[in-house]
Amino acid sequence: MEPSGHALSQLRRGVLEYCVMAALRDGERYGYELVAQLASADGLLTSEGTIYPLLGRLRNDGSVATTWRESASGPPRRYYSLTAGGHAALERFTGEWARFRDAVDAVLDTKGERS
Amino acid sequence: MSERRTDRLVRDYLKAVDAASAALPRAARRELHAQIEEHIRVACSGEPTEAEVRALLERLGEPEEIVAGEYGPQRPSRGIGAQAVSAIVLLLIGGFLAGIGWVAGVVLLWTSPAWTAREKLVGTLLVPGGLATSLYLTAAVGIEACSTSATTLSNGKTVGHAVTRCTGATTTLDQVLVAVLFALLILAPLASAVFLARAARRRLA
Hints:
The complex is a heterodimer of chains A (115) and B (205).
Chain A: H1 2-23, E1 29-30, H2 31-39, H3 51-61, E2 64-69, E3 77-82, H4 84-114
Antiparallel strand pairs in A: 1-3, 2-3
Chain B: H1 2-20, H2 26-43, H3 50-60, H4 63-71, H5 82-93, H6 100-111, H7 117-125, H8 131-154, H9 159-170, H10 172-203
Helix pairs in contact in B: 1-2, 1-3, 1-4, 5-6, 5-10, 7-10, 8-9, 8-10
């Protein structure tokens, strides 16, 4: 149980940033909105707060841009949007992920048939 | 009453976020605080009950977990670590303990993962013996100047020798130079300590 839990958390850590980028693909979002969207996908987030340091890094990498917007209620909010570089990175990853996923699925399935 | 309690829950949570991120660069730390604060503010735009706030904070996760997710597990000690602190302190003032304290500081410095070889070299060479050396040199030169000027008055034999020294130190330019040199001698180990502390903070973050 432990090893697979570890593998999953490693996988999640690696993939999460692309999930964040994918959630921004169709337009900008503010933090809470983005987190709520990702949290609705079961098993993706272990703790919602982990999105925020990640967003900070993506911003530093230039994949994500931050802007301030007035909100109807209360003080201005940070809106996150995907930059051109972010779009390109996401597209690249999406293709590679499909190949990787299919490869893992194929190997896992053959193992299941043999045993 | 219940509103106050929810406020306190949020405040304590944000404090825990600050503590968990203490080793991060300041800008990253501030941003994380602001992001999470905004998250909570947006989520709590109505009048949430205490249970709702607790659930919200639980979904956000343990602050340590949030920081570790991106930056790796943080050291349990929030500062730069006992060894790094001991090394910096001993390098600075360990020289007063018959010099042995400074040597111990050098050993801690070179065995610590907190610094690069170049930083360790700076820590060792600026200044060997630390503040003790600076104060000793300052005092030694100061006393020598005084005693020679005193002997010029009482001892005829050393007059010629001493006078050259005294006149050398009495021109204002030389006095200024000597004062600057002393100031640098005192400042160098202090600057070295600050340099090492900053480097360790960056490295162990």
